[in-house]
Amino acid sequence: MHAVQGTLGAETLGDYLGIWLEHAKARVRLKTWERYEGMISAHVIPALGHIGLGELHPTQIQRFYASLMPALSTGSVINTHLVLRSALAQAVRWGYLGANPADGAQPPRARRKELAVVDPALAQRVLEASGRSRYELPIAIAIAAGMRRGEILGLRWADLDADYSALQVRRSLSATRGGYRFEEPKTRRSRRSVVLPSFIRPYLETRRADRDQRRMELGEHWCENDMICDQPNGEPWNPDFFSSGWGPHLKRRGVPHIRFHDLRHAHATMMLQEGVHPKIVSERLGHASIGITLDTYSHVLPSM
Fold it and tell me: Is residue 61 included in any domain, yes or no?
């Protein structure tokens, strides 16, 4: 595998990946870029970074994947492969390589994960056990609307209809190395309107009254961000802090451990079991296509 004449033939893979990361920084979300940079720095550079870009061979990449398997999950190795293949595909487009050596390497086969079963009874138990806690409203929204964690934490009161019958998903809050960051929804379909069931209204009214009380008590120390799920002083709730507190919260409340994301799956599963058309569920979840919905929840739709 040789580099094209007149390009970066003498450069190492490590040198090239530094160039590619700068290119990728303007093309992907910051959180995504940080994952790319983390994979490359922690795994690719130590093992392959010294190899000349034009000398990199599929068998070297294949051995690299095998060396990762004892320490990393199958999914992590597959993700590393996807990032490396994408970076080397750009090298082909730029004329640095005649062909992509990662195309000739095979990552381990992905094993399909079984979705955690969070039935209506368990979802209700988690919600009731979380009463009068900071997690109560995010749980209620996840069950009612099937939204992602970052979408829920990014909600502002301005995103709600006056009668709390619907909301607009306009942004997502993500955690980065520099703290939290508001970003555009993940895909075009992720920017959506979601009709809310009536049971969510008391939770929203209670939170709004609590917000008004805290704002009055803190006065000039209040941070006005219009966030629905906020910190006590009105600042956004950093997703990292949300996640690190989730497990201890469930343990304190004496309920089985589930991932917060499993509440989104519970919402989708309940809708499908109630006969809602998969296309409606797909649009509600903000999936990029109905195919993703059908594949993810195929266990709920045996006849399909």
Answer: yes
Pairwise CA distance, residues 21 & 30, whole Å: 11
Rounded to 10 degrees, what is the CA torsion of 123, 127, 128, 131? 170
| 17 pLDDT more than 50 | yes
Residue whose tokens read 């749980």: 139
pTM metric for this prediction: 0.82
Instruction: Examine the domain organization and report whether 71 and 169 are in the same domain.
Output: no
pLDDT digits (tens, 9 = 90+) for 276-295: 999 999 999 999 899 988 88
Q: 229 with 152: CB under 8 angstroms?
A: yes
The Cα 56–Cα 84 span in angstroms is: 12
Q: What is the CATH number of the domain that holds 127?
A: 1.10.443.10
CB neighbours of residue 282 within 10 Å: 21
Tell me which of 51, 74, 104 is where a domain ends. 104
CA–CA separation, 230 and 236 (whole Å): 5
Domain shared by 146 and 230, yes or no:
yes
CA 241 from centroid of its chain's CA atoms: 15
State the total domains in the chain: 2
**Rg of the Cα trace of the chain?**
23
Q: Please tell me which of 107-111, 112-116, 199-203 the model is most confident about, judged by mean pLDDT.
A: 199-203
Per-residue pLDDT band at 111 (split at 50, 70, 90): confident
Segment (H or E) for 180: strand 179-183
Q: Name the residue type at position 24.
A: A
Helix (H) or strand (E) segment spanning residue 195: strand 192-195
Q: Which amino acid is at 76?
A: S
